[in-house]
């Protein structure tokens, strides 16, 4: 191998410390004193464990060059979190109106608020704040629905770029007269299509976006809000530029029934037939999937954004998380701000576990215990952490979510200390598995000490 001195010449910095990640679904790795070398592009160049023959020499060389950060006892390195579904303009709405059914919630709260983003000045402070808040919560990759407005959606993309977040940003399309309010609808389909195509090229061309930190995402809101012509036209854009796509999929009884009544097929089939699915598509929720739907998603290598807390408010049913994980379909987590109020993907991971446990146990105490729930429906905390990191990255087809060579260095340092938040760790009797589970249960923004995206420290 190369000498340590040679290696350090193209290394931007290195970090050494106790590290968690989950390269394989359902398993975790805890690596003590893991040394990660980050190159000038912000990618992980190489990793070393203390057993490696060059480990000590590398530590010495890196320290001499002032390129080594050493984590303290109680600090842990892990991959940055991936939020697959967040409505950035709904951030001011977080925590409001959650007692309403989805349709009323959209009409009464969401659409009037989103329409305010035609005012770029109104958008500015909110987009800054939501991006900063997600970064501070450890979200290094975020998939955003914006609004129907090109200009302010480009501002969101620029904001993510300026603040250093890996982001996938979509200008919403919605043109169905029957389902969208007059004040918040695209009335001219040709113009809407032109705006969306311009949005795509403008995001690719943003100054400072040469490495593709921010990507445009084709974003039909969901089946009911779009005409078939709109869905087909957007599908042609996905195909033409090989773009990411995000939308809502079979989220509730109403949404599922709407598709069946108007198209005679499921949301997944509608999206597939419109050319909207590829290996970078994010289907939010996906509650009422048929077996055929799951096979279709797998066939396209598309993925699912599981948003457990929002599902408890709006989905009318429980996510089949266990079955979906076992099916091998790509799946990660979403905050679904503001269908749920928390910007934390640690919280989403915890909720995913809790959601699966309620489903396993059942809810009706008048039913005998053996018949009350769905046997073996639980998921583990390790699987939830995998969805929050590696799983989400797979859905996006992004080289992140794992701290191994040739991946982007998107990472966070989480600290457990009696002086910070609620997370407590007793190293003398907490095993590495205990520690990781505690993190999923108890980690808060206060515990996140440092965040990097593409090798650049952003918190
Ligand atoms: Zn949503």
From TrEMBL:
Pathway the protein takes part in: Purine metabolism; guanine degradation; xanthine from guanine: step 1/1
Which leading EC class covers this enzyme?
hydrolase
Q: Which GO terms describe its cellular component?
A: cytosol
State the source organism's domain of life. Answer: Bacteria
The entry's keywords: Hydrolase, Metal-binding, Zinc
Q: Extract the GO molecular function terms from the UniProt entry.
A: guanine deaminase activity; zinc ion binding
Provide the reaction this enzyme catalyses.
Answer: guanine + H2O + H(+) = xanthine + NH4(+)
Biological process GO terms, please?
guanine catabolic process
Metal-binding is among the record's keywords: yes
InterPro entries in the cross-refs: Amidohydro-rel, Guanine_deaminase, Metal-dep_hydrolase_composite, Metal_Hydrolase, Metallo-dep_hydrolases
- Quote the record's cofactor note: Binds 1 zinc ion per subunit.
Q: Where is the Amidohydrolase-related domain?
A: 76-458
Q: What is its EC number?
A: 3.5.4.3
Q: Identify the cofactor(s).
A: Zn(2+)
Q: Name the family.
A: Belongs to the metallo-dependent hydrolases superfamily. ATZ/TRZ family.
**Function text:** Catalyzes the hydrolytic deamination of guanine, producing xanthine and ammonia.
Name of this chain's protein: Guanine deaminase
């Amino acid at each position: 191998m190369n000498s340590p001195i040679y290696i350090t010449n193209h290394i931007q910095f290195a970090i050494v410390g106790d590290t968690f990640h989950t390269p394989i679904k359902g398993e975790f790795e805890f690596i003590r004193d893991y040394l990660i070398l980050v190159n000038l592009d912000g990618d992980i160049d190489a990793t070393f464990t203390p057993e490696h023959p060059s480990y000590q020499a590398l530590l010495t060389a890196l320290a001499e060059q002032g390129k080594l950060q050493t984590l303290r006892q109680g600090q842990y390195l892990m991959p940055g979190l991936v939020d697959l579904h967040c409505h950035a303009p709904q951030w001011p709405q977080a925590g409001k109106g959650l007692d309403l059914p989805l349709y009323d919630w959209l009409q009464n709260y969401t659409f009037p608020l989103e329409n305010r983003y035609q005012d770029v000045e109104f958008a500015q402070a909110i987009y800054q704040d939501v991006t900063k808040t997600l970064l501070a919560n450890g979200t290094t990759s975020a998939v955003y629905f914006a609004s129907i407005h090109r200009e302010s959606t480009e501002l969101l993309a620029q904001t993510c770029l300026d603040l250093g977040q890996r982001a996938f940003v979509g200008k919403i399309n919605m043109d169905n007269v029957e389902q969208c309010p007059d004040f918040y609808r695209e009335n001219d389909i040709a113009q809407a299509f032109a705006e969306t195509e311009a949005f795509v090229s403008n995001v690719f061309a943003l100054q400072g976006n040469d490495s593709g930190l921010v990507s445009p995402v084709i974003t039909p809101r969901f089946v009911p809000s779009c005409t078939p012509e709109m869905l087909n036209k957007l599908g042609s854009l996905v195909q033409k530029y090989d773009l990411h796509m995000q939308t809502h999929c079979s989220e509730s009884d109403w949404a599922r029934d709407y598709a069946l009544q108007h198209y005679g097929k499921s949301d997944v089939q509608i999206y597939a037939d419109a050319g909207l699915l590829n290996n970078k598509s994010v289907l939010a929720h996906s509650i009422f999937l048929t077996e055929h739907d799951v096979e279709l998603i797998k066939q396209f290598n598309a993925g699912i954004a599981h948003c457990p807390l929002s599902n408890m408010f709006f989905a009318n049913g429980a996510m089949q998380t266990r079955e979906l994980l076992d099916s091998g379909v790509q799946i990660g987590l979403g905050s679904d701000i503001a269908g749920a109020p928390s910007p934390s993907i640690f919280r989403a991971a915890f909720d995913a576990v809790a959601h699966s446990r309620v489903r396993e146990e059942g809810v009706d105490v008048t039913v005998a215990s053996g018949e009350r729930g769905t046997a073996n429906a639980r998921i583990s905390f390790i699987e939830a952490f995998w969805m929050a990191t590696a799983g989400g990255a797979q859905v996006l087809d992004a080289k992140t979510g794992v701290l191994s060579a040739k991946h982007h260095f998107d990472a966070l340092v989480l600290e457990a200390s009696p002086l910070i938040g609620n997370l407590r760790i007793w190293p003398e009797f907490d095993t590495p598995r205990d520690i990781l589970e505690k993190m999923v249960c108890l980690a808060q923004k206060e515990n996140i000490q440092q965040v990097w995206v593409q090798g650049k420290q952003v918190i």
